[in-house]
Amino acid sequence: xxxxNRIAIAVxxxxxxVLALVVWTSNASGRQDPAPVRTxxxxxxxxxxxxxxxxxxxxxxxxxxxxxxxxxxxxxxEGQAAPAGPTVALVAKSVPKMGDVVQDxxxxxxxxxxxxxxxxxxxxxxGKCAETxxxxxxxxxxxxxxxxxxxxxxxVKRADGTEQVTLAGWALYTYAKDEAPGQWKGQxxxxxxxxxxxxxxxxxxxxxxxxxxxxx
Length: 216
Hints:
Number of strands: 10
Oligomer: single chain
Distance between the termini: 173 Å
Number of helices: 4
Order of helices and strands: HHHEEEEEHEEEEE
Largest sheet: 3 strands, mixed
Radius of gyration: 53 Å
């Protein structure tokens, strides 16, 4: 009888031990579950504090890839120079019958007008006169010279603001009725228009009938 009681007590003790182990294991598992959740929350907070979140994509513009700022603002590539005006030339020539004359770069004979003044230089040919006798304009550059003394060459400002080339103070002109290079149909017209010589004086050769050479 006593032996049976001892066996029952041993069995009861073993069951109690097993039950206690099961309860302890369950409690331990319940305490470990929240740990990963707390770790994730801390990591997210750290990224927000230090600015590690991805940056927003850069804004795009509608400007064409072939269009540079300089072209957009100015209509031409930056640094490109504006085209220069045509170069004016004074060329001393000796032609048959007429002798010494001055021509422009295209071979057109140049004239002076007795109603102009050389000192100070002044042109009296405006309006319709300038259509028949186009002034030789400087074009914003220095004339190229061939056989002409550079100390005699200058410019005079016309009424319209353009600069006309002068020789020894006399304004220079071409003649609209000279149809080809080398012609000098304007010689002696009105007794006031004369072919100009390289020294700026009148050329009085080959005067038309009825035109007398003016006093020097």
